[in-house]
Design the sequence.
């Protein structure tokens, strides 16, 4: 009777090995879930940073593209001055549309290339 408890029982060893494998699997799964959680949080933080950067850049573009800012940079950096009224040309409204480049390209058969999406 004592030998039954002290001897090698294959069923008991299989149960013990199965429980050990299950414990290892659950531990591995927990570690992987934790790693994934850290990666998700890192990605969220990066997305927030990028959204903030996009908002800052949009604000900068809006500030840069104001007419006053453009006029100031045109005169100071590029040396541009406003055009004199006599230098302006006013085009007549009677100009034919067929005189432009697009209608000529359209007539030559480039229309399918332009309208494809």
Sequence:
């Amino acid at each position: 009777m004592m030998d039954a408890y002290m001897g090698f029982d294959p069923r008991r060893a299989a149960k013990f090995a199965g429980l050990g494998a299950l414990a290892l699997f659950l531990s591995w799964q927990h570690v992987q879930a934790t790693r994934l959680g850290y990666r998700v949080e890192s990605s969220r933080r990066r997305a927030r940073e990028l959204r903030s950067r996009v908002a800052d850049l949009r604000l900068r573009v809006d500030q840069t593209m104001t007419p006053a800012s453009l006029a100031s940079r045109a005169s100071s950096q590029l040396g541009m001055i406003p055009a004199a009224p006599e230098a302006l040309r006013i085009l007549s409204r009677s100009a034919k549309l067929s005189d432009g480049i697009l209608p000529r390209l359209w007539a030559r058969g480039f229309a399918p290339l332009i309208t494809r999406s």
Observations:
- The mean pLDDT is 84.
- The chain has one domain: 11-115.
- Residues 11-115 form one domain.
- The two ends are 86 Å apart (CA to CA).
